[in-house]
Specification:
about 375 residues; alpha/beta; Spore Coat Polysaccharide Biosynthesis Protein SpsA, Chain A; 2 domains; 11 helices; 8 strands; about 10% strand
Amino acid sequence: MTEEDNIIEKDEINETLLPEDAAGSFVVIIPAYNPGEVMIEFITKLFCAGFKNIVIIDDGSKEESRGVISDAESFGCRVVRHAVNLGKGRSLKDALNYIALYMSECKYGMVLDCEGRQNIKSINELANALIENPDSLVLACRNYRSKTVKFKNVITNFFTRLAMILFCGISVYDTKTTFRAFSIETAMKFINTAGERYDYEVNVILESKAKEVKIKEIKVDDSNFENKKSHYNPLRDSFNLYKIFLRYVLVALITYGVDLGLFRLLMEYLKIISPIYYTVIDTVIARVVSSFVGFLIKRNKVFKTKEHTAATTAKYYIVTFGQMLVSAISVWLIQRIWHVDVVVIKMIVDFILFIIGFVLQREWVFKTYGKKTKK
């Protein structure tokens, strides 16, 4: 897939080196679980580059790593301690809470790792990109065409990216990156975002659209990204990508059940009232009721919008009945042209329209971002 417009090319960033004293406005967040001596070497480089505001979250490290944490503290790093391992998501939230309480002079934040995989040049490039895009979440992305990137990571990133575009309407080139920068004001919008472990970082990206936070990406030197074992699990930590679509499928099944059940329930009664047209009347009543049930569940549980306007309802029924009309016409036309089994045609057409309907409902019918809240 081609790179998206939100990727900032390196030549768009003014300078690799930060402006004078700019590093002092940054706070570096380093989640640490059983760090080694390499973290001290990394911290030394950060201090030399001017990044003197460093918050380390000791996420329940074992006894043998406590000395490294203490050395970092003696260097001047702030340390937030967890008695037990609570996960990276919880570590980032606690760091943000600490910064808001005790480091209000810092305007910007950056998440690095305790293994020192990022080099100072890339860190400066990311910092510069944030300074030029202060209202954005800036992600450092690797080049997935590089020989240093493992093939399995190329594949998982491809499918995760595809799912993110299809199910969430968000395009991010590197879905797995944890190397990111943000203003503290922006970061505080995500302090209550769900996720206690690696899933938190994915959830922040997923919520960016609803919170009206733009995402920018820059290409950085990725030569060290693949050298360490990652605890990231693409299925477990990206599950929220698929939850909204799975809910959508479940609602479709519920709606179908209501439609069929109501049709069966009213059949005998309507036979008496209208022996000739009872099937038509029954079908219309069942479809209207079941579609409204589907509307309520999608509004409250799938897309979770609180808006209940006549316009939203009208748009929902435009999509619903539009799908029915397009399905009927398409099946009729295709069957006349190719003379294929009509059931097979209908299954294919309805599946395609099901996906299109999901996108239309997410992006148009139940769209919540971009709307100003009334005070």
